[in-house]
Amino acid sequence: MGYIELDVLDNQPKRIVIGIDLGTTNSLPAIWSNGRPEVLRVEGEPALVPSVVHIQEDGTAIVGRSARARSLEDPEHTIHSVKRFMGRSLSDIDQADLDRLPYQVSETERGLVQVEVRGKKLTPQELSALILREVCAQASAAMGGAEIMSAVITVPAYFDDAQRQATRDAARLADIEVLRIVNEPTAASLAYGLDQRKEGTVAVYDLGGGTFDVSILTIEEGVFEVLSTNGDTHLGGDDIDAVLMDVLKAEIGEAIDPAVLADPAFRQAARLSAEKTKIQLSSSPEADLTLSLPEHKIHVRRRITREEFDALIAPLVKRSLDCVRRAMADAKLAPSEIDEVVLVGGSTRVPLVRSEVEAFFGRKPHTELDPDQVVALGAAAQAEVLMGGSRDILLMDVTPLALGLETVGGAAEKLIQRNSRIPCSVKEGFTTYVDGQTAIDFHVVQGEREMAADCRSLGRFKLSGIPPMAAGMARVGVKFHLDADGILTVTAKEESTGATASIEVRPSHGLSEEEVETMLEASLANAKHDFEQRRRVELIAEIGTMLRHSEANLPVAREHLDRESVQDLEEAIAAAKAAQKSSELDEVQAARDILDRATMPLATVLMDSVVKEAVAGKRLGDV
């Protein structure tokens, strides 16, 4: 297993802060090490952690690759693409998307989206917390068991306040301190080291699994200033998959029983088939779109050419470029004035996406870095800056949507305009409208529409304690403060008396403080069980690495070790393989320890061999 060295000062370990890309399809941890950002992975294992959660019959959760492997055999209890539900109500989600999900989605009394599985009702924040824990577990294993407590987490630039609050709540439930929430396009620019150029204007096109956004940035002497951002939180690889799923349904025909289309097994199989075909078409001129469900007498094979695929997804690519045009207009720039174009997100591997972006800007975009890793690498670079690293960088981001209050008659009074630089503060005066009024109800909204009903409701609060006066006499100053993470707080003050109230706006579709506390208490109550589950997963991963090395060197053991030592090793290998399937921590731990002891004679032989090879042909004075 590879380890990253940690600096130690006065026997106190250096505070570890990692960067996390919490993605729709996959998530990933990274860290700054040896002067550059590096992805954190366990040796011999894939880097990406699938953002998938499987709930077992006993109610315990499996996350990541193991969960994704259950997608076909148990689709109804395997949850994917939960990022699209963060900070959302059920009414915000397109019914067509809900119809494609293999699992059940409902809403709470307050309108929160929740996933119903095995009698449990889980919010997107709780599910995202499970994913974050798995990401941190991978990071910890990659660093030899170091404890991960702090992180920089990325979000789409076009995430609104409710979605950013939901991300923070998920981190809190995962027991992670969030040092900063960074927009994904900004993180991508850091990963490419664009801060190292003296000056320039950069467009970052980020098409992920579930969301799209674009940011226009200027860079001057290490200062990143976001001029504008635009996007669509309902546009990504999932929507490309949906187009191919519709092709499958058309091939099956209208005669199929509607109950079959609603079957979780059908929905999951169709989604995975579409995803596979999409990936193949990124590197091949044609691919087969197949679906086989014998229990429903469904056997479909449809050849899809690259040209046909491009025609099918062209409207989706056009939607993304419409967002780019709006961002360019807000930045008051022409495509020819862009110096660098960066592609981010796994969906930018689609050839049509790359060719259309290149045609729009008239220049070849940066694709050197893995689009699935670039955001996490950038988050690690920002973590290094926040921890006092040597990179002299200043990020000046913007808010994607206007923020304001509902006024009399239902109009939306915008206090902070779209694309305002953050952090920022704005103050506006309000008054009473009824004689003797001692309280004012405020409704905080986000959006570009003129009427509050057409904007996003972020929350409501009441300022009480206003002295009874004639209508219009009270003077109430309301201050909006948007911090560097894009999180909003509101403070109200009655000027004549100095009475104040500070309100942390909790989004209408976010978790209440009480709900977060309840979830945290449940987490503490299950801490021992959760720790054992995590430890078991880590041990199984460690056993996997030990088994690969042990089995690869069995011929050496049989040649150089005595019969008893070889027998002990072979028995330990067999027991370790069996323990990989065990749900009991003690059994897995014992198998790991036995294998460790059994490999010691082999390790000695291998080390002796290395030493002999190193000193071969040398005299004593040369060594």
Automatic annotation (TrEMBL):
Q: A single Gene Ontology molecular function, please?
A: ATP-dependent protein folding chaperone
Q: Which PROSITE patterns match?
A: HSP70_1, HSP70_2, HSP70_3
InterPro entries assigned = ATPase_NBD, Heat_shock_70_CS, HSP70_C_sf, HSP70_peptide-bd_sf, Hsp_70_fam, ISC_FeS_clus_asmbl_HscA
Q: Which domain of life is it from?
A: Bacteria
GO BP: iron-sulfur cluster assembly
Q: What SUPFAM superfamilies does the record tag this protein with?
A: Actin-like ATPase domain, Heat shock protein 70kD (HSP70), C-terminal subdomain, Heat shock protein 70kD (HSP70), peptide-binding domain
Q: Which UniProt keywords apply?
A: ATP-binding, Chaperone, Nucleotide-binding
Family membership: Belongs to the heat shock protein 70 family.
Give the protein's recorded name: Chaperone protein HscA
Source organism: Saltatorellus ferox
Query: What gene name is given for the protein in this entry?
Result: hscA_2
